[in-house]
């Protein structure tokens, strides 16, 4: 069957340039973004992770003082499937000398071509900088090996600086060759390929030749057989982190900038551990004919700059109001996203729908608290088993301390930071900011804190939950912001049941304690404030509500806010193909049909109230909404109305007893 309107000519494959019918599909809102303090990883660069081990490999584990790893671990423990993580750092940032000095530097000695002695090499020192700042870079090691493989037989060309190649060989420009033959030094001389050419040897024979950087100098007539090795580099980068050793291995690296796999370019683009530092020479050579390997030496230790992290590490205020696009994306006008920091940079990731900043209350504390010495055991006159010996200290560096802003004396500063996060969510209108109620506040103090917020793009969770600290030999608990648990519960509920199902009535996996004790009356008051609380129960801590911080009753439920956000994103992004289409009744009908199909599917999944589609939603796109004067302005207007289903929060049971003693529950 041919497409109507497609005129077919001569037989062949023809392209039908018609636009496919518009089809709208729901988008995922279960992807979370985490911004915080990490011991390693790229700074101010969102990195996608899909499991806890991904976070460990890129950003480290619990060895740093931040709460970021605990929050990310909690997210995946609840069932979250994908997140973006961004590491913050103090001012000044790269390329300020202070930031540069925080990167560990290693040096390795190789050779470069001697301009005065063709084929000979001069020692040169290459710099290899840790890819990210921090003390972790001091554990790096680099081993550089040269490999001579792909041996083949070639012939000396008619020109002095040419090598006639067999048909199966075509080394790209920049390839380093070791050539063996009469008149050449043993075990061979080094030559670089500067280009490939075709030579007409005879009227019936055409040969490919490699143009070399200098004459071969081999004795014998043109066409003498020569043995050729292709010399490449293999670079192995090791990270001797005792908690999680890492290793990268890069093979087949070229030794000239003209090579398609130039070693410097490959390390800069593919290595997560090191990057070239300083100016590398145009070409490299082995240090000798025997292709000896080289090992790096530390030249500068890395440095952790935890003490300098402050509020300006999480946001720098360089995004003017209204500059970011409503529908999300990377576009920011004249502002380069790479120049933004912290939350402002994470806000530009279109996939992020839940934003958590577990270290927003960060306050660095100098020094460390030594563990009190245990008293010596008292041996009495009665024989008893000796106590087990104390465990040996782990072979890891000591952890630096960090504290939180004091909820009592510094509550205005805490509130100001969180308001900045809510302001960002309001401006983007694409994600929900998950706030952590400051710990150790009374219910009355929480009410004063809550009064500062009125936004459906924010939700608050309480109290902070304790998890066993994997880095503590005694397995003492570490208090973790509840937003990480809530983000994982929200993501898991959406993936399993759909967006319309609220995240309440779920247990916080791995939580064993909480900050403070809260009575049933306290939970009643928190619920009336719109604060989503984890309540202690026999089997753990259960999230008992899913509300926003909005005073508007229509947007009091988090599931309603997220459903409306999803609809707006879908219409904003997926209706773009209709731009510049002729405004016709057919176009309006197509838009009305696509939106209706989208809403019909959501209604069947239980997202809307109402027994019928007429009660659940409506879509209007007709002449009344699009008069001639509006069409002349290039506008297409559609009205969409929905009735979101609100979660059931209370069950009211009536118990009565009849005269004969029968108990009825209605």
Description:
Helices cover 21% and strands 25% of the residues. With 666 residues, the protein is of the alpha+beta class. The protein has three domains: 32-88 and 307-367 and 397-559, 3-Layer(aba) Sandwich (Rossmann fold), CATH 3.40.50; 105-300, no CATH class; 579-666, no CATH class. The strands form seven sheets. Strands 2-3-1-16-19-20-25-26-23 form a nine-stranded mixed sheet, sandwiched between helices. It has a six-stranded antiparallel β-barrel with strand order 6-7-10-9-8-11. β6 and β7 (162-164) form a beta hairpin. α1 packs antiparallel against α2, α2 (68-78) runs parallel beside α9 and α8 (443-450) runs parallel beside α10 (520-529). The protein starts with 31 loop residues before the first strand and ends with a strand. Residues 551-656 form the Tail sheath protein C-terminal domain. Belongs to the myoviridae tail sheath protein family.
Short characterization:
The protein has 666 residues and is an alpha+beta fold.
Keywords for this entry:
single chain; 666 residues; alpha+beta; Rossmann fold; 3 domains; 9-stranded mixed β-sheet; 6-stranded antiparallel beta barrel; 30 strands; 21% helix; globular
Main β sheet profile = 9 strands, mixed
> Which structural class best describes the helix and strand composition?
alpha+beta
Unreliable stretches covering 5 or more consecutive residues = 320-332, 368-380, 389-398
CATH topology of the largest domain: Rossmann fold
Counting H and I runs of at least 4 residues, what is the number of helices?
14
Question: How big is the Rg?
Answer: 33 Å
Pfam families: Phage_sheath_1C
Biased composition (Pro residues): 372-396
Protein name: Tail protein
Domain Tail sheath protein C-terminal: 551-656
């Amino acid at each position: 069957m041919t497409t109507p309107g497609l005129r077919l000519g001569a037989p062949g494959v023809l392209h039908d340039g018609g636009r496919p019918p518009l089809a709208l599909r729901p988008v995922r809102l279960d992807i979370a973004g985490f911004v915080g303090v990490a011991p390693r990883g790229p700074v101010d660069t969102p990195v996608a992770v899909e499991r806890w081990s991904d976070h460990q490999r890129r950003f480290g584990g619990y060895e740093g003082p931040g709460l970021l790893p605990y929050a990310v671990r909690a997210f995946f423990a609840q069932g979250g499937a994908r997140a973006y993580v961004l590491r913050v750092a103090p001012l000044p940032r790269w390329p300020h000398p202070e930031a540069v000095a925080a990167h560990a530097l290693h040096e390795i000695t190789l050779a470069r071509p001697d301009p005065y002695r063709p084929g000979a090499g001069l020692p040169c020192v290459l710099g290899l900088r840790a890819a990210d700042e921090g003390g972790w870079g001091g554990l790096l090691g680099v081993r550089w090996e040269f490999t001579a493989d792909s041996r083949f037989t070639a012939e000396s060309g008619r020109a002095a600086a040419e090598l006639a190649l067999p048909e199966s060989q075509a080394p790209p420009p920049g390839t380093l060759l070791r050539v063996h033959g009469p008149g050449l030094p043993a075990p061979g001389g080094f030559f670089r390929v500067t280009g490939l050419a075709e030579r007409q040897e005879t009227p019936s024979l055409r040969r490919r030749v490699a143009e070399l950087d200098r004459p071969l100098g081999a004795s014998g007539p043109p066409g003498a057989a020569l043995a050729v090795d292709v010399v490449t580099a293999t670079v192995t980068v090791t990270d001797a982190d005792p908690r999680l050793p890492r290793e990268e291995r890069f093979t087949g690296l070229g030794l000239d900038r003209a090579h398609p796999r130039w070693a410097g370019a490959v390390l800069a683009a593919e290595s997560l551990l090191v990057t070239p530092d300083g100016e590398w020479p145009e070409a490299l050579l082995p240090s000798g004919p025997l292709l000896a390997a080289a090992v790096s030496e530390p030249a500068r230790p890395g440095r952790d700059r935890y003490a300098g992290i402050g509020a300006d590490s999480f946001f720098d205020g360089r995004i003017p109001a209204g500059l970011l696009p409503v529908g999300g994306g990377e576009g920011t006008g004249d502002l380069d996203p790479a120049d933004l920091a912290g939350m402002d940079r994470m806000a530009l990731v279109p996939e992020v729908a839940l934003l958590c900043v577990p270290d927003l209350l960060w306050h660095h504390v100098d020094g460390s608290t030594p563990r009190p010495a245990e008293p010596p055991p008292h041996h009495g006159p009665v024989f008893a088993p000796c106590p087990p010996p104390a465990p040996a200290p782990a072979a890891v560096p000591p952890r630096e301390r960090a504290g939180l802003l004091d909820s009592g004396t510094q509550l205005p500063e805490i509130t100001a930071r969180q308001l900045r996060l809510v302001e960002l969510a309001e401006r983007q209108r694409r994600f929900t900011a998950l706030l952590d109620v400051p710990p150790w506040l009374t219910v009355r103090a929480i009410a004063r804190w809550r009064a500062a917020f009125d936004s459906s793009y924010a939700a608050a969770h309480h109290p902070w939950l304790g998890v066993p600290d994997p880095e503590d030999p005694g397995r003492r608990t570490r208090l973790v912001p509840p937003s990480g648990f809530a983000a994982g519960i929200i993501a898991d509920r959406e993936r399993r049941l759909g967006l319309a199902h609220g995240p309440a009535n779920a247990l916080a996996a791995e939580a064993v304690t909480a900050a403070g004790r809260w009575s049933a009356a306290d939970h009643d008051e928190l619920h009336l404030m719109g604060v989503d609380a984890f309540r202690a129960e026999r089997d753990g801590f259960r999230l008992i509500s899913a509300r926003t911080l909005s005073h508007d009753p229509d947007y009091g439920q988090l599931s309603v806010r997220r459903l409306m956000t999803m609809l707006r994103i879908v219409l904003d992004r997926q209706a773009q193909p209709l731009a510049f289409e002729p405004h016709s009744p057919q176009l309006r009908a197509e838009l009305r049909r696509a939106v209706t199909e989208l809403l019909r599917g959501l209604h069947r999944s239980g997202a809307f109230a109402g027994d019928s589609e007429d009660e659940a939603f409506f879509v209007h796109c007709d002449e009344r909404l699009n008069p001639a004067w509006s069409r002349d302005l290039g506008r297409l207007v559609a009205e969409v109305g929905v009735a979101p289903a609100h979660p059931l929060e209370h069950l009211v049971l009536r118990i009565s007893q009849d005269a004969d003693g029968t108990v009825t529950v209605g």
